[in-house]
Amino acid sequence: MKDAKESARSGAPREPLMRLVRRDTVKPARAVAVRAAAIVLSLLVCGVFFVTVTDSSIIEIYSAMISGTFRNGITVNTFLKEACMLLIIAVGLAPAFKMSFWNVGGQGQVLAGGMAAAMWLFYFGNDLPNAVLLPLMIVSAAVGGGVWALLPAIFRVKFTTNETLFTLMMNYIAIQLVKYLRITWSPIHALGMITRKAGSLPSLFGNENGWIYVIAAAAVVLMYVYMNKTKHGYEISVVGEAPNTARYAGISEFRVIVRTAFISGAICGIAGFLYVSAIDHTISETMGGGYGFTAVIVAWLAKFNPIFMTLFSLLISFVRSGSSEIVSMNTTTLDSSIANINIGIFLFFLLGCEFFLNYKIIFRGRGEVGK
Amino acid sequence: MKDEIAVQLTGITKRFGPVTANSAVTMDVRRGEVLALLGENGSGKTTLMNMLSGIYFPDEGTIEINGTPASIRSPKDAFDLGIGMIHQHFKLVDVFTAAENIILGLPGKSRLNMRAVKEKIRGICEKYGFEVDPDRKVYNMSVSEKQTLEIVKVLYRGADILILDEPTAVLTPQETERLFGVIRNMRADGKSVIIITHKLHEVMEISDRVAILRRGKYITTLETKDADERSLAEAMVGEKLALNIDRSEPKNTTLRLEVKHLSCYNAEGIPTLSGVSFDAYGGEILGIAGISGCGQKELLESIAGLQQTRPGSSVLYYPDGGEAEELIGKSPREIRGLGVALSFVPEDRLGMGLVGSMGMTDNMMLKSYDMGAPVFLHKKDPSALAGAVRDDLGVVTPSLSTPVRRLSGGNVQKVLVGREISEAPTVLLTAYAVRGLDINTSYSIYRLLNEQKEKGVAVIYVGEDIDVLLELCDRILILCGGVVSGIVDAKSTSKEEIGLYMTKVGGPSDTDKSAGDYTDGNEENDGNKGKEDGR
Predict the structure, then answer these.
(1) Cβ-nearest to A248 among B15, B353, B358
(2) d(C-alpha A65, C-alpha A320), whole Å
């Protein structure tokens, strides 16, 4: 009480130096401008970072990043392939997140799908024609990934376990399983019983990644329709946003959560199939390179809108390929993990800018200017 | 002393994005007076008081406390200036005792002298007439006790200016009377009390002056003794009002629902309803009264198929000219599928009944989305319905796809009630249909319910405001701790009688010593309450 009286006596009352006001709505133009500013800033900081760790000038850095991505068909293909894989996983996670089911088990679901696909490859790769083998691989990969997400979902609904921890733990189980299977399966592999062609996706439009692009595009479109135009999508929104309302409307939480978690995991499982069939032609625990987690951020940033997810995936893939190019120019001083630092910088700015979209900062002496 | 200005607000403006919650409000509060702050929902009463208690900072304008300009940047600043606010939603730690909650956040020596703290609490209680047990845990307290604790907490911190945000919304008439007694004691002690409310009769009873806000603007301050309910209501709404409910005589009543021995346990195995039996008739409004949390929600949910009931419970539904159907054991969807049209306006309109992020159209199809061809949604009918509800009930919304979360409370409620009534039910269950609605909207809801009654619908109306229950309903069932303590004829009963039934099973006949029994009667449901809150 004393303090207040003293300060009141000593002079005029002081407004706080700055305060935060929550924005009610954000105009689309502003949202785009703030995000664009964040992207530009993040690229600037990436550039400055590279200037400090290499001998190159900032212009050389940027031109290297661009040429590393767009120099020729091979680099463009790698860039697009990485973007598509990230995108497929993000699209897979989106419905679960929309349902407030925090699926951070993308990595595990990718691996589970990969294992299921690789099983066919290793045991039947030389006996079955690709026309039979590939569908079997796809379906079992989807089931494998789906089951990996199904377990946490069932436990969440039946025993109210925390699905974040559960899906996270399922990642480690999948990683250890893959390590074990690699040892078990390695004799088969080492004997060269698998020809490179067996179980590989054929090229499409003369592009070996063609199918990846088609599957990614299909996933985006189908997920958009599924989330916005179907009864299932409606149920997901209701259960995610207002579980009590769902109960009251007679929507079965169990059915919706279990079904959606399965779909979510199944799409990640298909990503695992693509790694085995079209990219790695084998299975390893590092498959997917942490995209299971990066995809969480992609899905969140895009507010589960598949179109925005596409955009963010492309941007992240660009930062990755650009960083790799600079690493390859400075192999003596730099390590490939630099790319992760840059993706970190990029995500920091993109996530940080959400703050400026949701809040307004008002400095002392400047009243809020209303409309 | 009496006319000294304790709080002077000058030109206070507060905006939230495009919404102006308060616009150039200039008003004062005198020392030693009870000022009622009156206004419809969304008129900016709470926002204005939040600026006084440090939750918000005004965009424009100045605040003077006891004649000195003040800058209230945080609730701590407010406390330092002697301002304390009792919010609608109590800010208490459930697992702490009363005394622990009171000293929470206060500076002090490293060694805590609980005995001195309790001594001081008892002193405050004696001075103003509170009943607080410093050692009682909050989760064991009834709503009224929690509120008392909040007030004591504020007084303990030396508040001279108390703000109470709709304090009577959760109280029985008897508890309200007691609260008013305490407020009068505080006034006599020279404290300023600001009470936010929209109950006119309470304004008349307790306040010295009334300040009226309308749509964020300050209208006027009246001496209570010069005002009456009608003039206050008109100042508040800004137009002439017809404040009466036309209650028609029930005609052609037919038995619709027969509830027998209905019992429920909550998740902790504590009974929430025990042996509830009653009949509901088409063409009649059956009111349900009771302190909040006495089983009203469970009762309606049991009928709607949303509650697990105990064996032996029975809810028979009598369709037109058909066999009686047992509703217990059927899912909410089955109950609808059988042609039993039960409508339910949930207690918490957003949390249960609407999806905040969806627009009106999407909310309209909540119960019907599953009909029609499979897989894809069909938005044509819901969209037409949303348009009709908007036009019929006068819902103010920028568009049918604007998230309902962004609408004001009254409009959200209209969306919900509109959807429920649109189903043309034969039994309409409503809980707190006018909770938080302004006078005008409330009366249009009453009219809607009366229309339904005249159409032969059996309306079950769970209400908070006993005056309204008395005017609107034909019969009133009173729940007390999950037990039916009485069913009375609304035309011949009195507010006091209902108040006594609310606190004691068996009612007025054996409650001459009502004060003592009151506490005992309450004890039973206290246990439930704490547990429920803890969930």
Answers:
(1) B353
(2) 9
Tell me where in chain B the CATH 3.40.50.300 domain(s) lie.
5-237, 254-341+425-534
Question: CB distance A231–B375 less than 8 Å?
Answer: yes
Picking from B272, B324, B312, B266, the residue whose alpha carbon sits closest to that of residue B295 is: B272
Assembly ipTM? 0.74
Strand, coil or helix: what is B118?
Answer: helix
Nearest to B286 by CA among B461, B471, B482, B426: B461
Q: Can you read off the two tokens belonging to residue A113?
A: 């799908």
How many angstroms separate the CA atoms of B228 and B210, rounded? 11
Closest to B260 (Cα-Cα) out of B485, B453, B474, B484: B484
| Residue B55 contacts A, CB cutoff 8 Å | no
Superfamily assignment of B254-341+425-534 in CATH? P-loop containing nucleotide triphosphate hydrolases (3.40.50.300)
* pTM of the predicted model as reported, rounded to 2 decimal places: 0.74
Report the alpha-carbon distance of residue B116 to residue A206 in Å, rounded: 85
B241 in contact with A, Cβ within 8 Å:
no
Cα–Cα distance measured from residue A313 to residue A302, given in angstroms and rounded to the nearest whole number: 10
Distances (CA, A) of A47 to A19, A63, A319: 33, 10, 11
* Token pair for A314: 């492309």
Number of CB pairs < 8 Å for A and B? 111
Mutate to test the interface with B, among A30, A98, A226, A234 (most CBs of B within 10 A): A234
- B368 → chain A, closest CA residue: A249
CB contacts, 8 Å: B353 with chain A: 245, 248
Amino acid at B20: T
Structure tokens, B255: 């038995």
SS3 for B364-422, per residue? HCCCCCCCCCCCECCCHHHHHHHHHHHHHHCCCCCCCCCCHHHCCHHHHHHHHHHHHHH
Task: Domain A19-363: state its class.
Answer: mainly alpha
Q: Is B19 on the interface with A (CB under 8 A)?
A: yes
Whether A116 and A140 have beta carbons less than 8 Å apart is answered as yes
Q: Are B352 and A245 in contact (CB under 8 A)?
A: yes
Per-residue model confidence as pLDDT tens for chain A (371 residues):
444 444 444 444 556 677 777 776 677 788 888 888 988 898 888 888 888 888 778 888 888 888 888 888 888 888 998 999 999 999 999 999 999 889 898 999 999 999 999 888 888 877 788 888 889 999 999 999 999 999 999 999 888 888 899 999 999 999 999 888 888 877 665 544 455 667 777 777 877 788 899 999 999 999 999 998 899 999 999 998 888 888 878 888 899 999 999 999 999 999 999 998 888 777 888 887 788 888 998 888 888 888 889 998 998 888 888 888 888 887 777 777 777 888 888 888 888 888 888 787 777 665 544 33
Mutate to test the interface with B, among A18, A22, A99, A231 (most CBs of B within 10 A): A231
Q: Which residue has the tokens 């419970």?
A: B313
Of B331, B332, B370, the CB nearest to A231: B370
B90 close contact with A: CB closer than 8 A = no
Name the helix (H) or strand (E) containing B363. helix B360-364
Residues in CB range of B192: below 8 A, 6 or more apart? B6, B7, B29, B30, B31, B32, B33, B35, B160, B161, B162
Q: Write out chain B residues lying below 8 Å of A9, CB-based.
A: 68
> What fold, for B5-237?
Rossmann fold (3.40.50)
Cα separation of B449 and B23, whole Å? 36
Task: Sort out which chain B residues have CB atoms less than 8 A from A23's CB and list them.
Answer: 17
Facing residue for A238 by CB, picked from B62, B344, B355: B355
- Which residues from chain A sit within 8 angstroms of residue B369, using beta carbons? 231, 234-235
Taking the C-alpha atoms of residue B421 and residue A355, their distance in angstroms, rounded to an integer, is 41
